[in-house]
Design a protein that fits this description.
Elements (H helix, E strand, L loop, with lengths): L7 E5 L6 H17 L4 E6 L4 E8 L2 E8 L4 E3 L7 E3 H5 L9
Parallel strand pairs: 1-2
Antiparallel strand pairs: 2-3, 3-4, 5-6
Amino acid sequence: MLGSLPAVTLCLWGHKRSKDNELRDSEIKLGLYSRYGVKQYWQIDWRARFIEVYRADQGQLIHAGTLSKEGKLETPLLPNFSCDLETLFAGIPATLAE
């Protein structure tokens, strides 16, 4: 791989959430993204309406905070970017039909 991965990586948890998927997203992918220089990683849970934010600190992605549906997603990596989570999740049902 040449260079580092994109500065911001999104992970949208799928319809069928399982312990294996959570482990993969929260530990395995996080380690790989740290290893390859990702500067920020968002884990988005559209059902529970929250975003876990991880930011690089000395080569490791560290949990920087949890945003709830009333929060606002902003990042120093994308100046002028701002998104209200209420707007982001608007129109997305918390559960989907099987």
